[in-house]
Amino acid sequence: MLELNHSSQLHSFSLVPDGTRSAPMAPDVMPSLPGLSIDEEFSPVEIPRVVENVFEEGGEFDPFDLSAGQAISDDHTQSTYIVRAKVAANKLSALEKSAGTDGRIRAVYSDPEIEACDQASPSPTADPATSVPRICPGSPPLGSDRHVAARLGVPWLRRRGMNGTGVYVAIVDSGINLAHLRARGLTAQLDVARSWMAHAGDQPGQLPVGHGTMCAYDALIAAPRATLLDIALLRSTRPGGSAMAGLLSDAVRAYVHLFRLMRGPRRPGEARSLVVNNSWGMFHPSWDFPVGHAGRYMDNPRHPFNIIVGVLAHAGADIVFAAGNCGRDCPDGRCRGVTNGGIYGANSHSQVLSVAGVDLLKRRVGYSNSGPGNLMHLKPDICGYTHFRGSGVYPADGGTSAAAPVVAGLVAALRSRFPYDPNDYRTSPAAMRNLITRTAEDRGAIGFDYHYGWGIANGRRMALLRSMSVLSSADEPAADINEFSAAERALESIDGLDEVPRRWHEETVGAPVDQTKRSEPISASEPIEVRPPDTIRAPTSAMGDSTLPPPEDKRTRRARTKSGDSMPA
Asked: Which pTM value belongs to this model?
């Protein structure tokens, strides 16, 4: 990617759809250097300038937003523009030097390939301290989307009108097949006019059934009334390339499209809430420029894509990224054995929710990336449920690819009741991220850790806390504090789920599951905690089926830690 300084012709061409320019750009605008080939089919993409925000005396600002001191300039002459180019390897150094001498070129950046965080094919690996194997790519599904909905508190949310109505959910992926979603019983809504295709000729909602369709299905678990935007980014046509791949420069284009949607004209009083799901990323450092290069992507906050992610979040979008599938237990093959590299690039951006994966037993799945993040250290932020039977696209909706849209749907459900308002900092994306992490169901070490982040997203806790007077506007009734406290203590009921791991384990390993052992020990040598017999089978639900016993809560673990007992990782 080349970052170019502003010119009037660059700005006018940035408003023209790709591949439709009637004339090439003038030589005085576009650099022409030995070994450099500009992609003429790629229209220049405007990157707005981020400037210092000036607060009025006595004005309000968002205490949760790390970017509260910044604003997006509307002056196009301050913008820069991205074009896609190729350069011979032996000419790259000369091109980089020209950025300091050629007044047209601002900088040179990497344009790595990006791929979906779907599943590879390793077999399940045994958890050393339990008889239940850890879920890995290729493992059978554990539970279904119905169980995910129950874990999230979706029935409770729907009864209170939180179902995604009036909220856009952008699926930035390989494309959506609307017919497949409807065949699965969903009344999915798609805004064709506001969708975006990386390749001319593709039709929103009519792309092949695949990874993007799975992500759309999973987002609709918690937000069935949301309006989908099909942002078909991962549509590689490179010979020998993955069918679910793209280039980061295409992601810049997609995000500028969404930014214009958020900043576009709207009717008086119209709320515009946008949740952006990204179940893709970069899998290995070799895909990027080498360490120390000024144009590197994975740990460089000045890279154009990392800039535009912050710009879109500043415009009011809730952005969700999959943490990645390079977990230590059974990483994706594309990781090439690198499981200690953290979370790369925008997947660890300070203004996104970085989502790790847990199964329906609330155990970290073996392929889920651990932190720290390359851009922001404290990543992942949260865990979402994954590896369940759902969309029918694959045997299991798995990977952090599924965990991310599950959480994105939860955000959309909340937004239908608490829409984004640019004049109220309490509705900002930063406030929403704070709400999600603050109400998470803590797992692993007490507080934040690099495997679970702040814990597992919990829709009911989010809605109850958001409704309280501390975070609600003056005309909203405050929720009963006793109701919130009761919800904190309540046992979550999921009918029949305690039978699912038994069947899954017996089919996978061929031995009965031992339910007296915890799922996430610190090491193989840790003493095994035995539950009292009356907690092995949970109470019967209203539907007459057995339910899964709840995991150990934070209060119990804190008391046990003070007494010197061992604690799960």
From this structure: 0.80
